[in-house]
Amino acid sequence: LGLVHSHRGRVGSSGMRYKLLHEGDIQVCVVKHPRTFLSKILTSKFLRRWEPHHLTLTDSSLTSATPTGYMETPLSYSAIEDLQLLSWDNAPKYCVQLSFPGGTVLLQAANSYLRDQWFHSLQWKKKIYKYRKVLNNPSRWDVVLKEIRALVDMALTSPLQDESIHQAPLHIISTLLAENSNLSTQDHENIIVAIAPLLENNHPPPDLCEFFCKHCRERPRSMVVIEVFTPVVQRILKHNMDFGKCPRLRLFTQEYILALNELNAGMEVVKKFVHSMHGPTGQCPHPRVLPNLVAVCLAAIYSCYEEFINSRDNSPSLKEIRNGCQQQNDRKPPMPLRLLRPEPPTPPPATLLPLSVLRHLSSAHVAAAPHLLFSPRPDSPRLRPLLFVLTMTLSFFLSFSPSPVRSDYDDWRPALASLLQPIPFPKEALAHAKFTKELKYVIQRFAEDPRQEVHSCLLSVRSGKDGWFQLYSPGGVACDDDGELFASMVHILMGSCYKTKKFLLSLAENKLGPCMLLALRGNQTMVEILCLMLEYNIIDNKDTQLQIISTLESTQVGLRMYEQLCDRQRELKELQRKGGPTRLTLPSKSTDADLARLLSSGSFGNLENLSLAFTNVTSACAEQLIKLPSLKQLNLWSTQFGDAGLRLLSEHLACLQVLNLCETPVTDAGLLALSSMKSLCSLNMNSTKLTADTYEDLKVTDRKHYFNSIHV
């Protein structure tokens, strides 16, 4: 492994750097004389004529766009015996000399930089051509290994700067490996170590990725996996990566993670790898690491279930359908994903074989017995490292027990919640008890996170589509408890900004039974939900209302909260009784408590204009404002009133006509809720966080609702 580090000091050698030339304009002169007379010709005053040509440096020869004169036939790289710069006195300026049997070709550039660029490009093309021919017909592998090291050394020391300088050797070596699959394990490791310096700043090509995958499967405990593959995988995860265009890179990353899990320390090694990708600080400096890690894990899990599905009916996979591979005879055996643990005993004919046996089956075996492709056990422990990596990004380490260990990855949790919000898993996985049980710990962490951007992802992406909230609620396909996780999700959502009629109406329509059952068992969150349903008149059916009241009265906590509800209802009737002022202005620096105390002091059924400008009220005061039935004008200038309060106002203050939100912390999320307020005709949003897109949406609402003015 010492060879991995022997080249690194040479990569950063100083000197001029040039871009690899593929074509260009240059002057050409051919001198067909023996080399012994070359010096006489070059110093002669009768200089040979020069022809302008547009030359192209192909993979095998130097050709001209106008094949006439000196360049009537291409000049093969194999025919070039020597290549050098002309720099002595009386020689033509800025010339490159190409010696071939029977003569010399002189290429004259416009300046010394272009001359050197042509020289190094020709030299590179000539050497790559030689190595390609040598390595295409290997005889002795000790000689081949020596040539590979020389090729890598040439690429590392070349003054040319181009992506192909490192990619061309990798493609040559990957072709060599693809055509010679019977190499020994030691040859495998020697080649991997030899090309390791090229992989420090370059992604491996597809064929090379397949070779690396094979090594990870066959020798997961090899030190090459740790020493050589680790920086390669780290580079893949840290950069923008389209795994749809580069599926082999994703598969290689997946096989690397599985190989780490095969080491003695197992999960501890995987844990350290994820920690190294995140970094020691609280914020990961590489924004692409998390999406790439999640993409690798999700694709592996999806492939596991997709292969299982295809094995049952032998139907074409989605990928094969996209590629037009509809015919049974055209189908190839799926790529082994090593997600299932091999079992020592041979299964009976009615049982499907594990993937470890599949690796030794030929295409003929697979075609003859397609039902033997996959074992219908996607719950195998081979899925564990993939789920482990997925859940490690949630700030705890999964050991098949719901016990958090540390919180080093809090910065990843919002992004991960957003990535998982659309539920990117096949329906077979969601109906699989083992899978949903392990994923349940992920959802619990989302439900325990106080950040709105995290726990809001429990809800569905759009209406009509189930979210994690629906899947893990009683009656959902993933629910395996009596509603404890459901109560936890409702608690965090209600405590945030979802104490709205819409959310309560959804619960009343779909989950009223589980809510009443949990309330009957004394769950305080569900007791609060039932009280809010009564308070906001969510339930229209009288029998259902009486049943809810009976449920509340059956427990001490329910009885206490129901009595408090009745007291609030009596106070509300007194508050909304006709009478009191029509205009009211709170003194500056007033708080939510001051407003609540004032409104509880008498009747405010006639209050139409309320000014809370320059006070210290927050969104919490919305609980008091929605009790004012006649309120038409509300001034919240320079307060701390936010999005949660706006959502509540939009559902309860149907008569509100004028709203001043100048210099408040409201955002697009809260302002969009105002589009449902049909009576609102004047809205002031000066000095808010309103964006241009939301402003355009509100302008459309303006035309629909006939707002008199929108101020921004």
Task: Explain what the structure shows.
- This protein is α/β, with parallel strands linked by helices and 712 residues long.
- The chain contains 32 helices and 13 strands.
- The strands form two sheets. Strands 4-3-2-1-7-6-5 form a seven-stranded antiparallel sheet, with helices on one face. A six-stranded parallel sheet has the order 8-9-10-11-12-13, with no helix packed on it.
Mean pLDDT: 77
- Net shape: elongated
Q: Counting H and I runs of at least 4 residues, what is the number of helices?
A: 32
Structural class: alpha/beta
Note poorly predicted spans: 1-14, 313-381, 392-407
Percent strand: 5-15%
From the N-terminal CA to the C-terminal CA, the straight-line distance is 65 Å
Sheet having the most strands: 7 strands, antiparallel
Oligomer: single chain
Radius of gyration: 36 Å
The share of residues in helices is 40-55%
Keywords:
CMIP; LRR_dom_sf; single chain; 7-stranded antiparallel sheet; alpha/beta; disordered N terminus; 6-stranded parallel sheet; 712 residues
Structural topology:
Blueprint: H1 3-6, H2 8-11, E1 23-31, H3 38-43, E2 51-57, E3 61-64, E4 75-76, E5 82-86, E6 95-100, E7 103-108, H4 112-136, H5 141-157, H6 163-179, H7 185-195, H8 206-218, H9 223-238, H10 247-261, H11 267-278, H12 289-313, H13 318-322, H14 355-358, H15 363-368, H16 384-392, H17 413-420, H18 427-430, H19 433-448, H20 452-455, H21 468-471, H22 484-495, H23 501-510, H24 512-520, H25 524-535, H26 542-553, H27 556-575, E8 583-585, H28 592-599, E9 609-611, H29 622-625, E10 633-635, H30 643-652, E11 658-660, H31 668-672, E12 682-684, H32 692-705, E13 709-711
Parallel strand pairs: 8-9, 9-10, 10-11, 11-12, 12-13
Antiparallel strand pairs: 1-2, 1-7, 2-3, 3-4, 5-6, 6-7
Pfam families: PH_21
Domain PH: 20-129
InterPro entries: CMIP, LRR_dom_sf, PH_CMIP, PH_domain
